[in-house]
Amino acid sequence: RTVYLNGDWVDETEARVSIFDRGFLFADAIYEVTAVVGGKLVDYAGHAARLKRSLAALDIPMPVSEEALLTLHREIVARNALSDGGVYLQISRGAEDRDFLYSDALRPTFVMFTQARAVLDNPKWKTGIFVVTMPEGRWVNRQIKTVQLLYSSLAKMEAKRQGADDVLFTEDGVITEAGSSNAHIVTKDGTLVTRALSNALLHGITRASILDLARAAQIRVEERGFTVDEAKNAAEVFLTSASAFVMPVVAIDGQPVGNGKPGPLTARIRDLYIEDRL
Ligand code: PDD
């Protein structure tokens, strides 16, 4: 693959980042993942806007203009002839001798790469996925898309060991999110329930899009916390993210959700998203 590193296009084997990079030493970095389907970026405006918010929250300067950012996204897709997958980008505060306190003059480290993946043809979409619940152990400012992903990674590995596909994080009895996506339920009376936005969860771009589309389609939407029991007894449970779009959950902690098959409202919401955003 051709990757982007601080203004240069280089082969992935040539790209080098300093061991003193604060992304590496302090997880002092933010990231974005934008899906690509048929060579086109999906929901790009939302990802670009959240990137700006994450950088502002950490007081890291935007390394390129907004126009250049879009051009870079298009160019990396073209250079790698990417049809389906995603564009990953990471911006760290930069590299300097290790110190908790950083200097003002640091130049951010900006890398981008593509990953080819069947986004729409994911076979799991037809069967749904199994998840297990785990106590929330990530940091408290989850609305910032930082690379502080150690706990998420350990939790997803543990879920895999338990034979599940993903994890649902729980805090005070309420589900915050899945391992790398937002979690939603459909109640038996057909209401889509999703946790309201706060610092407890990442403000998913896919989440925002499906809520807009659901409301426009007269689907009842409630933004409030829901418990593990509510999720286990819901008609449907699904996850949303730029890498999975809309993914049905068919079992939680080994207990089937609904009839143990992907549900109709989940399918409808996925169709609405695909029709409108792709
Ligand atoms: N993850 N919650 C968390 C913790 C996430 O990491 C993500 C995205 C989401 C969904 O956000 P969006 O709809 O904007 O992708 C929610 C990306 C895909 C990743 O880490 O690969």
From TrEMBL:
One of its GO terms (biological process) is branched-chain amino acid biosynthetic process. InterPro entries: Aminotrans_IV, Aminotransferase-like, BCAT-like_C, BCAT-like_N, Class-IV_PLP-Dep_Aminotrnsfr. The keyword Repeat does not apply. Its cofactor is pyridoxal 5'-phosphate. Its EC number is 2.6.1.42. GO terms for cellular component: cytosol. One of its GO terms (molecular function) is branched-chain-amino-acid transaminase activity. Keywords: Amino-acid biosynthesis, Aminotransferase, Branched-chain amino acid biosynthesis, Pyridoxal phosphate, Transferase. Belongs to the class-IV pyridoxal-phosphate-dependent aminotransferase family. This is Probable branched-chain-amino-acid aminotransferase. It comes from Ectorhizobium quercum.
